Amino acid sequence: MQPIALPDRAIVTVSGQGAQDFLQALITTDLGRLEDGEAKPGALLTPQGKILFDFLVTRDGEAIRLETGVDQADGLLKRLTMYKLRLPITLSVASPAAVTIQFAETSGGYRDARFAKAGHTVYRAYGKEMGATGIDEYERLRIASGIAVSGGDYALQDAFPHDVLMDKNGALSFKKGCYVGQEVVSRMQHRGTARKRIVTVTADSALPATGTPLTVKDRPIGTLGSVIGASGLAIVRIDKAGEAIASGEAILAGDVPVKLALPAWTGLEFPAEADEASA
Q1: How deeply is 175 buried, as exposed, middle or buried, from its count of CB atoms within 10 A (0-12, 13-18, 19+)?
Q2: Which pLDDT does position 129 carry in this prediction?
């Protein structure tokens, strides 16, 4: 595929000698494991453990770059400024910013770790404006890979990191120490209490609009997120979905029968299926 310019992206940059230590104590990503040339997902959480801002993290020399949506940029900058106090760091924002997707290794590109987990080669390049043709192809790949984005797939301040697979895609650290919301997500991890997950949704005909409930016997089990044609993503209760799949009950998006699957790269299974396999 040809390079694709993404619309509505912004970059918040944290620079200065204390940039990494400052962010390490705030965001979910373990910056000590962030490699040069890598773009890793991350988030700044509420104290209650829900996603307040989401972004992709890269190194730009000694600075740390947070790529996010233009709708989040000012709020993220304001929140980081609140935490900054008198630390010797500098915060800046470029909104909108030129972000281009490329599908082969390129000088200055950053490999997107989310797609790498799903077995695809996707690079993000900054500062080079290119044509925006091919957005639908990129979205199809993102949906097929089970990669959720805020706005289309979940609302900020409404979803936990586990809901959108951040515990599986490298966005969420359980070893680096304290950060905002860390106690809540660590408790979910160790107790295994994550009940909602992103799944891929497929149908034999076009799916209804984003926001359509997914139901079993008229009871909601989730909500449809991003949609292109007959494919989409949804956050669902995996216990309820697993029960329906195991018993052969129809799962509907509006009035359209659908099939659900957990992304293979996660290693997750629907609980009812796992129980049957071990019986």
Answers
A1: exposed
A2: 67
